[in-house]
Specification:
2 copies of one chain form a homodimer.
Chain A lengths: L14 H15 L6 E2 L11 H13 L16 H11 L9 E4 L2 H8 L8 E6 L3 H9 L3 E6 L16 E5 L11 H14 L2 E5 L25 E6 L1 H4 L7 E4 L12 H12 L5 H10 L2 H27 L4 E3 L5 E5 L5 H12 L1 E2 L1 E2 L10 E5 L4 H15 L3
Parallel strand pairs in A: 1-11, 3-4, 3-5, 5-6, 6-7
Antiparallel strand pairs in A: 2-8, 7-8, 9-10, 10-13, 12-13
Helix pairs in contact in A: 2-9, 10-12
Chain lengths: 391, 391
């Protein structure tokens, strides 16, 4: 039984497993510590009652003859696909091009099967680890595109690549690509015959008007881009599991075969859909009242972000992001990421994420997630002020 | 953007998509037809109230500060893994070796990334299409092991293979492997250094005492076998989505690397767990009352199976399976599978599954699924009697 040889190129653990082990070790030695988690970007606030209630009612109804449902529709519940097309995409894309998923992480994993191994995959550096590691697992060659304060966190150039994975708003830096940047990228992808994978998991946090919430706001993007969406951060569904993948019918491989047809085939063969209870929740999110209630949650997390942003800025650190996403990307020019991480954990009992865990250009940075109860976030801000002092 | 070249070897559609298109076409031409679905094996009866209610309460509680939960534990909820280890495996395996999944289909898909492409994969013929098609997608070479009435639906021999995928009770034939057969298989796998993938999606239907419900009932199986389990057919969770994968810590690749470590890595990187609401339902299934309530559902479907078995046997057809699984495998010696399928659809408005869709050795057979409301199953039995007459 031969091992996939590419696995030996991976670090032993997934980033957040590594962090968790270090934190467990710290807690064992410091059982009194009041740890505040600004690390993994996990939602903390209760769901709006109308959304939780919709799932509760759906689940209860599964215990009745009228409410029971078995396997769902192949691409996911039609009503939900329609609601996504209408409410989130203003019918820019067709509901047939939407595939309901259990979240962006597994959706990225399932995309890999479409492609011949050994491709060139360009990713932002730093970036969300999943596209990098799933590319390694599948024997692709990675090109890292540094995103740093010097280039305003947008790649200076895009060399020829088969696949370009872009996350905007960007995890981990919390910055976001402008319409102008994305237009140039779409044009380049057309010219260089690259496929874009556009991850919009944080789109609902966008505040500024020139930041697209979807790649399909750019003309012609439906000829070059797959888009990933998620209810995780948009509606607090990190544990409920729901997302979507958009595969436009116009997409083709270099031999002219329909990428849409292959995706539909792979999706039907390797996936049986998201939970129908989660789908009922997604539908409730996209009602008028659901969108209003969800917006209050998003506002809450962005208020958290502002609290941390102000506190960290006042300490004299260079702080990036935090305008269109609930992440702050903070520079520690005198330290490497892990020592900055350890210092904060030991001295302030704050858990963050070492920037280098997201790629080499993340060295010297920490990501601060603003998910958390507001009292905890304020407490974290105070600890940061006390530890670093105000400049 | 280069297409995965193996996709061109797949049929255009996944089997059940094909059937569904044919049935849609029939219904368009025969809008009055009272179709009864004995095709796709989809559960139809409401969940026991205590299970639906547990999910309803969990979902409602997500709307409260005390009940909200974000991302779950890496391998799935600990309590659920413990309950599976205790209730279903009598602690034969450790809860650390259990990974909660969203069902066996996607779990099979995620296994593929562990292995070097180009392996030899042996499968029962006929078999569930997913292991076959995911093997094709990943460039493996398939060996079909015919399972026919002549060999009592158990492969006559197992040639050398890297991976052996076995489903027992067997979808589609409804037959099941005995303890003796599985013992020989485990010994052979050890000798030939093959990895077994053992799919137990239908284990809860087993009635006979010499049929193992888990490969780990066989001594030494934890050195050679991965096992797949599912709540879909066991508890009516086809739409709720919940399952598990067992990867024993003793498993290694040919180079000695730990298969468990790689699986844990892949699972953390490419999957974010089943819905926490579904997990709450799974936990309710495994309580004492849950197991009792679930057993009533299983008995119901097995009563359906007996109704269809008797009716089909009385028509003079050779009928197999139906003792340890809710599937009947029926021989139509004068016809190919698709013409038998069409005859039944046109003349009796019964939808079945053509055996050849599960592999070449399924030619001339139809699979009858006994999922359905009992009134419908009795009506189906009557139509079969009327159409074929009693012999």
């Amino acid at each position: 039984m031969k091992r996939n040889p590419h696995f030996s190129q991976l670090s032993k653990n997934y980033l957040f497993q590594n962090i968790w082990e270090r934190v467990q070790d710290f807690l064992q030695k410091n059982p009194q510590a009041q740890l505040i988690n600004l690390g993994v970007g996990d939602t903390t606030e209760p769901l709006p009652e109308l959304i939780a209630g919709a799932m509760g009612r759906y689940a209860d109804a599964l215990g009745t003859p009228a409410g029971y449902r078995g396997y769902g529709e192949g691409q996911g519940r039609g009503e939900l696909r329609n609601a996504i097309a209408t409410r989130l995409y203003h019918n820019r894309i067709d509901s047939d091009e939407i595939f309901i998923s259990d979240g962006a992480k597994s959706a990225i994993g399932r995309l890999q099967v479409l492609f011949q191994p050994g491709l060139t995959v360009a990713v932002q550096d730093p970036t969300y680890p999943v596209p990098v590691e799933s590319s390694i697992m599948n024997g692709h060659r990675l090109i890292f595109l540094p995103c740093t304060p010097e280039n305003d966190f947008w790649p200076t150039e895009f060399p020829q690549a088969d696949l370009i994975y872009i996350c905007s708003p960007h995890n981990p830096t919390g910055t976001a690509a402008t319409k102008k940047q994305l237009k140039k990228l779409v044009d380049l992808a057309k010219r260089q015959k690259s496929l874009l994978i556009f991850d919009t998991a944080y789109a609902s946090y966008i505040q500024e008007s020139d930041i697209p919430r979807s790649i399909y706001e750019i003309e012609g993007a439906d000829e070059v881009a797959i888009e990933l969406g998620s209810f995780s951060k948009f509606a607090g569904f990190t544990g409920v599991r729901l997302g979507w993948t958009i595969v436009p019918k116009k997409l083709t491989f270099s031999d002219g075969a329909s990428l849409y047809d292959d995706y539909r085939r792979a999706n039907a063969t390797l996936f049986n859909g998201a939970s129908n209870i989660s789908e009922a929740g997604g539908l409730a999110c996209l009602s008028e009242e659901g969108l209003e209630a969800t917006q209050l949650l998003l506002d809450y997390y962005m208020a958290n972000t502002a609290i941390l942003f102000d506190a960290l800025t006042a300490t004299g650190h260079s702080v990036y992001g935090g305008v269109n996403a609930p992440y702050l990307w903070v520079h520690f020019p005198e330290q490497d990421s892990w020592s900055a991480f350890d210092e904060l954990l030991q001295k302030t009992h704050l858990m963050t994420t070492p920037g280098v865990g997201f790629g080499p250009a993340g060295e010297g940075f920490l990501r601060f997630s603003a998910y958390g109860h507001q009292t905890q976030i304020s407490e974290a801000a105070q600890r940061l002020t006390e530890h670093f002092g105000n400049k």
